[in-house]
Records
---
Amino acid sequence: MTSGEDKYWYNFTSGAVERGFASPAIDRAGPFDTSEEAANAPQLLAQRSREWAEEDEREND
């Protein structure tokens, strides 16, 4: 298997956790090591986005 085929992905279109490259890249986030991590992808990505925005704001001050 290639590196991503044995990982878990979160599908934004369906809201499902998938293993491997089941969906087009534009529809999925990952890779994650576990299905639990993939299931939490929306929250994780929102948290990272907030952190990056705060970092950008500090750098621009």
---
Amino acid sequence: MEQISIIGAGHAGTLLAVGLAGAGYDVRLFSDKDAEGIRDQTSPTGTAAIFADSVATEIRLGAADYSGQGAPMDAVHLFFSPKVGQELIAFGSPLEEAAGLATDVRLKSYDRMKQLAALGGDIQIETVSMDRLDQIAAESALTVVATGKGGLSSLFPRDAARSMYDAPQRKLAMILVRGIASDGTAFSNRLPGMTPVCFNLFGGAGEIFWVPFLHKSGEQVWSLVFEARPGGPFDRWDTVTDIHQAFATAKALIQEFVPWDWPAMANMEPLLDDPFSWLTGAFAPSVRTGSGVTSGGHPVMSLGDTSVSYDPICGQGAGSGIRQVGQYFDAILARGDRSFDREWIDEVFEAFYSSHIEGTYRFTNTFLEPLTPTGVRVMTAAFADPRLRGPLLKSFNRPPSAFPWLAEKTETDKWITHHTGRSAASVVARGNAKALGAMIKNTVKGENFPRAEATEIPSRMLARNS
């Protein structure tokens, strides 16, 4: 079969390589590090949480299924404070058929590079420059660039008409920790018996959340994510230079701003045996073009973060990349006698943009911005009626499905009535009454959200740092 070259050995590039090699294609994968180098000498590129549809796509393309190897991401729960100190809205729901997991991308890349080699794929270890990319594209029937937001991504111009931002909206930080129970006992103040994504949303300040995370070693840990509005109270990461400072900053922010979860996290420790287990950064959430042209005039195709960068607030980047791989894979197999020319590349990318990127980018930005009156109506209704919580939170699995009801009041009201059998006005009124009660309680007692209980952590979970 024709040779297909893939530049970049992240979770998207390696998944496409494994899928195509398994389908009989001659695949070349280019990476600046070998499998061991990626596993042992790099940081995870975020939490990489994915929901059910993306998990199914990985399995369909022949990659390893990590379900059952660690704690599932089986629910979503949120605490919402319109401003810091005002504990107002709290609700969550099991994800059921939409449940997913967060797996270290370093483990995925390592496993898939080994799998690709076993399938007969050609793995080239080199840093690909623009000139080298031109040579590769000249030799290949199709060249796919999956190198992330930097480097070769400049070959794919930012689409100003589709990109809402031209500057970072958050300063980002992530650190992995052990010492938080992962058996469903940790966050008894949220959804007892489950291991949810635990959101804490603060109007005007940013977001802080935790995700159950399968580390590259096979250890179940938690990923702590901090999204700071520039200049806000969480914006403390600029001077952090090592894992000790990162952990100290994370701990201080949790104790000060998320006291309701702290009892379950008091025994947490940084992963000192993995000095790369933290990162900081900032980027503008943007959509790029699906095709680019090398200096020699050869068309190349973007994939994953090279195509679109989502703010991590809704955990959509990894899942979108996997879905994109699935759609590219299907299009390649269904191509017939057509050439991999720029027209074909643009056609395939536009189909994915219409079916997924457009709605997912909009979904993410809805939560990145201050909530619109319609967004407040949705949240208030879900606060009032548990029957709305599953439909709302399961939309994280299929973000485009949240529209138009997340954005248009008439459709919101239809959605509320459809799931509750009650008039939207009555549900929202009940939610407003609950919110008023929460405000009064918060004013009188100084708190409103339920507090977690301290949990006993087996010593074996903390032994690696001793």
---
Amino acid sequence: MTNFTRRSAMASAIALGAAITANGALAQDLPVLRLSSVVSENDIRAEAFQNISDAVSDTFDLQVYNGATLVEQGSELTAMQRGNLDIGLVAPQAIANQIPEWSILTAAYVLQDVDHLETVFDSEVGEELNAMAEEAGIHILAPVYFGSRQVNLKPEIDVQTPEDLNGVTMRMPGGDSWQFLGTAIGAKPTPLAYAEVYTALQTGAIDGQDNPLPNDYNMKFYEVTSQIVLMNHLVGFDVLAIANDVWEGMTAEQQEMLSSAVDEAIAESTQRHLDREEELISFFEEEGLRVYEPDRAAFREFAREAYLNSEFAESWPEGMLDTINELGESAE
């Protein structure tokens, strides 16, 4: 089936599902929406996606596929563009690969916290970035927060400024933007598969890694490290997006139903992540790790200069960084 034919069929199915209210065989044939994510089944976000599915179950058969079992990680955007996926959890870094302007949201210390993240997406900046996404074939339903990234180290060194990370081998995800993030906080970045990080820390092949606290817990990195530096250098989020053709094939009532279900489920997920981060600080301290805040202002200024003097900033819309900074002040 061609992409055009599949999309036309999807739109027809959605319209048919809305039109049929009587009982009978057709009333049971709800239009199918397939959602793909990389999160594990025990992830807070997996529960949120199931809550969305339950909330729209009278109108859609929303099937959730977690663990990248439907679409390979990193290919969600392309799958939606090609008509092979309806809804996907997409990393902003993946969007930035196609829309360079989006890279502003992947830079260190541009976003301060989850309130700032939500304020940006609700602002004219969010409207501008979302419009770019629309042109690329997807409609953004919501940003999905999963924790702020913190630095987790094996060496017992005191980290207060970027200079203290000079020469520290920091595992970062693969890709230019991720590697530059490591440089922008003063470390020596090295790419390494996520599954190999524990052993690399244990053997001393790397000095540290950065992840949200729930990831540190799930992967048991605290067993082979000595400290967590609460840098908050990157607000971790993905976006839940839907293919334009699928979205535009819905009635206004269906769009509102889906949007409301997403907003409610993601708001609950966000709060649960924030609560979990607070709980884990105490847990890590009880496990014997030193947990502390560095001079974040020093890191923020160092990162700002690094990005503004890099090729990444060349694609940022003029004035957008200043606007985002102003929105951060209003969100405080």
